Task: structure prediction
Amino acid sequence: MRIYCAKDYYHASRVAANIISAQVIMKPDCVLGLATGSTPIGTYEQLIRWYEKGDLDFSETHSINLDEYRGLQPDNEQSYRYFMNTHLFDHINIDKKNTYVPDGTQSDSEKACRDYDEIIRIHGGIDLQILGMGHNGHIGFNEPGSAFGKETHCVKLSESTISANARFFDSVDDVPKEAYTMGIKSIMQAKKIVVIVSGDSKKDIVKKAFLGPITPEVPASVLQLHNDVILVGDEAALSEYYKAVQ
Ligand code: F6R
Result:
C-alpha cells in the first residue's frame, strides 16, 4: 500500500484528484468507481476546476457508483444519484448515459443487484475505485460483519450509519433503512483503489483498518489484501497510523 499524507483536507483532495486525472488522461475510456459522502466532495470540486480549465476530458469516461439508498427516487435530494449529479456530473462533460448508480427505485432487490453486477461485468470491471471509509470501517454500505465474498446486494443499515447520515436528512426517521451496495468482492476486483480519509474522527479506524487484523468486523481491513491500494489522508486522519508504525 502506498500512503500520501497531506497536510489538510484541501491538499488530500488535490492528491486524490491528481490520481483520478492521471487515470483519465492515461485511459480516457476508463471506468471510475465513485463514492458519495462528505470526503470526496473536495476531490470532485478539484476535478471540476481542472475540467473548466480545459485540462481534463471525461467524454469517453464511464463511472459506476458504490451504492444507493433503497426506495429513493433519483431526483430526491438525498439520493446518491442526485449527489453525483450535483457534485460532479452536472459540471463536467461526462455523458450521463455512461454513469451508473444502483437503481434505488427497483423494488425487486435481487434484480437490482444482478443488473448492477452485469453492468460492472460488461464494462470490463473498474479501473480505479474511489472509497471513503465509515467510522466503523464500512466501505460502500458494507457494514461490520459483511461477508467478504459478496457482490452487489441489499443491506440493512446499522444504527451507527443511520445516525451518521441523519445530518443530511430532516430527521433520523427519514434516513432510509436499506441500501443497495457493491459488495466487498466487487470492490476488491477493482484494478486500483484509492481510499480518501480526512479528519481527527477517522484516526482510530484508519489505524485499525490498515494495521489491525483482517476481519469482516472491520470491512476496510480487507483492503490490506489488495495489491494496488493508495491511502490518501490528511495528517489528522493518519496520525494514529503513523504513531503505531514509528
Ligand atoms: C459512500 C459510501 C460510504 C462513505 C463512508 C464515509 O458512497 O459508500 O461508505 O464513503 O460512509 O462517509 P464520509 O465521507 O461522509 O465520512
Q: What stands out?
A: The two ends are 17 Å apart (CA to CA).
